[in-house]
Amino acid sequence: MTRTTQAYAYLRASSVRSGPAGGLLGLETSGGLTPRGTEAHPGFFRGFLTHPQAAAHALLAVADVAAARYYQRLSPASLDPVVTGNGDRLRFESFSGCCGVYARLDVLREGLDGGETGHGTTNVDVNNPLREALSRTGSGDPLHLRVGPEELAVTTLDGPVLEKKVPLPERWLRGFAETQVIAAGFDLRAELPAGEAVRFLRSLPRGGAGRAAPARWVVPAGRTLRPTTRPVPGAVCLPGPERLVALQRVLRHAEALRVYGPPVAAGAGPLAAAWEVVLPGMRLTLTLSPDASRGFSGEGAVLDALADDDAAADAELVAVLLAWEPRIDVADLADQAGLPPERIRAALTRLGTAGRVGYDTAEAAYFHRELPYDADRAERHNPRLRAARTLVASGAVALDPGDGETATVLSDGHPYRVRQAAGVPSCTCPWWAKYRGGRGPCKHALAVRMVRRGAGAADAAPAVRTGGGAR
Buried b / exposed e across 173-197, counting CB within 10 Å, b at 16+? Predict the structure, then answer.
């Protein structure tokens, strides 16, 4: 597995300190982007948490996911959570080491008191002593939150006193990109009140991680969820239910449980889903991949966006218009950019491959953040996309004349038939037979789409043939 190193440099370790006016939760930041450009230690908030114990436990849940591997457990290697200031809220995000669970804590305006929230994205130090202190946070005492260094620290310290270097698999970076595309296809499927939410989540198994197991399904039943043995319309997939264990941290504070997922047809295979616990002034969401053994990095949801050169050009324009909005308004962006809404959505998907936007299922909207990734990196480490570009460049794609729905692709000496029906491709290759589109398009369908869009390399255009079958 290809690995890079994620380096963090903090002025001091994050901590919880006691004082005459209550506790102080100081979260230290490491190099990030703000409206003023790159900053070594940006500051996003200074004020009180309106529900300190709930916030402390929810932050611990995000850290739990960052330190966990839910499949084939190995030595833990934790990625420090990402924090984004969106002007009216703070978002804390993390990804599990196995790439199968994405966690996000949204501390909303009503969860923050007495300070202005800045704009930008950075990492925050969550160390073991901090975790122990957060677990001891009580509900009665006020807790002051500081995200970023103290002013004194900025002026008196010459450099970082705490540095971390974490091996970071490339698939984690791709996972952040995939989740925003997948979540954009979710709708609210069920909402449980506090009592039912706690009962349901406590009934789930906590062990069993580390081995593949059949996907479970649940369906709304009045004010709760009941299990079903097979996928039916309206059902939600619950793949690897033990991966929701981090939600146990916040059950005492839960006000409701909301479940999001894509449409389900009878006989469908395992699907991703998002599980959101509503907290006072906050939301904690865990998004699960379709199987405990299956990380988000291989889902292929971003392939179309990476292959679309028009979307790449539009993304450059749209990126200039973003300003760390907590909710990106597609219609407003379309007016500002002079582009139709569908091209704006394609551009946002492309920006998501570089970590520059995320998707909030609760608000059914994208939000702006800036992770230190780039779309070129996502493309370099996606073998299907590279293979599709090679097929286009070699003239292996033959579009059938007339119907505009079928094509033949010569790959590894074999002709494969690709058919487009209602915008959904199918192929006669073994990949399609195995996954039926559940992990994005195969390289043959992707190559055909690239040719139809004119997104291949310039020198590939004359090599594209029409008529006949394979050579």
Answer: bbbbbbbbbbbbebeebbebebebb
